[in-house]
Automatic annotation (TrEMBL):
InterPro entries: HPr (IPR050399), HPr-like (IPR000032), HPr-like_sf (IPR035895), PTS_HPr_His_P_site (IPR001020), PTS_HPr_Ser_P_site (IPR002114). Residues 1-87 form the HPr domain. One of its GO terms (cellular component) is cytoplasm. It comes from Fontimonas thermophila. Belongs to the HPr family. The lineage of its organism: Bacteria, Pseudomonadati, Pseudomonadota, Gammaproteobacteria, Nevskiales. It holds the Pfam family PTS-HPr. It comes from the Bacteria. Its main location: cytoplasm. It is found in: Cytoplasm. This is Phosphocarrier protein.
Amino acid sequence: MERTVSIVNKLGLHARAAARLVTLASKFECDVRVRKDGREVSGKSIMGVMMLAAAKGTEITLIAEGQDAAQALDELARLVADRFGEDE
């Protein structure tokens, strides 16, 4: 399963936002991957996610495979849409 989302927070997928994404992804049993511009990394790896350098307006694809994949995609997409809990 996969879902494409846009980064909407002002600072993009910086350290704090990446940490929130990885922390949430790690709560799920399924395999979580994040793809940007053809590069795919583990959604459970802080270094991998940060290396994507996804700025505001960038589209990323969230990929989940496994038992709780649908729930993982829903919650991860919501986190991105909510600007990772940031004001801007």
